Amino acid sequence: MTPSVRRTRRMLELAGAGAAALLTLSACSSSSGSSNTASDSSGSASSKLSGTVTVFAAASLQESFTALGKEFEQQHPGTKVTFSFGGSDTLAASITGGAPADVFAAASPKTMATVTDAKDAAGAPVTFVRNQLEIATLPGNPGKVASLKDLTKPGLKVVLCDKTVPCGAAAQKALDASHLKLTPVSYEQDVKSALNKVELKEADAAVVYKTDVHAAGDKVEGVEFPESAKAVNDYPIALLKNAKNAETAKAFIALVRSAEGQKVLGEAGFLKP
Fold first, then answer.
1. The domain that contains 99 carries what CATH number?
2. pLDDT tens digit sequence for 21-48
3. Residues that constitute the known binding site for molybdate
4. Sheet holding 205-209: strands in order across?
């Protein structure tokens, strides 16, 4: 074999080896790309929201939160939002007592503090709406209630929320600011119970929230009073430390705070935070 033939064969062998190396590298790169794609796809699938979110919320949020819960379930198929509505102080006590919940929405910073002081919240609570008091009377306002002072009329049956409940504390604050003393026929454990007394005609009037008067429709008549401006309640919301479905709970809180959520709450009569 001549030297020139040997050189030609050697060059062909080197070229073949290089091509094989390139093919191997290309295959590895393709395999790596496929692996990354599968990983990305898997990550995307695992981030899909699912499961049940348990929300403890102030009674005054019942109508608006129920609507937002349904909207959330429609936006995220495979999720379910369950609610426990009641007096904020009772709900806070349940949470610190170990009741399973993912989210707490309170009607005052004071009741939220019960939970945060016990270190049962994950992160700092955020105010998402505010609420103002209004007097609910029987339809047609037969007691001719036109002011907070009118609630002290002899013979008028008035209901208040208990002073430990945010609506009751706010009512007492308004009464104190007006230097008025009022002896109600009953103190109720949450605002819906107070309103219900008027709806059932067991009371002539009750001091509740504007949102509750709005929700009651023609079952009651609302009477605004200027002193309510001195007793506006901030409503904070927080993810709970022992949340079993934290990611989905965070998404529900995000909906509440979103423009869409704020629109629903605003239409219910809540004030902007």
1. 3.40.190.10
2. 333 434 333 333 333 333 333 233 336 8
3. 60, 88, 191, 209
4. 186-188, 158-161, 205-209, 133-137, 221-223
Compute the distance between CA of residue 119 and CA of residue 116 in angstroms, rounded to an integer: 5
Considering the domain architecture, whether residues 78 and 211 belong to the same structural domain is answered as no
* Number of folded domains that form the chain: 2
For 84-130, the pLDDT digits (tens) are 999 999 999 999 999 999 999 999 999 999 999 999 999 899 999 99
Which residue in this structure is represented by tokens 């605002």?
191
Same structural domain, 120 and 240: yes
Give me 141's structure tokens.
Answer: 């306002």
DSSP state of 164: T
Q: What distance, in Å, lies between the first and last C-alpha atoms of the chain?
A: 93
Query: Domain check: are 210 and 251 in the same one?
Result: no
Decide if 196 is inside a domain. Answer: yes
Pinpoint the alpha helices (H) of the chain. 3-46, 62-75, 88-96, 109-117, 166-177, 191-199, 210-216, 246-257, 259-267
For residue 106, what are the domain limits? 51-130+234-268
Residues making up the annotated binding site are: 60, 88, 191, 209
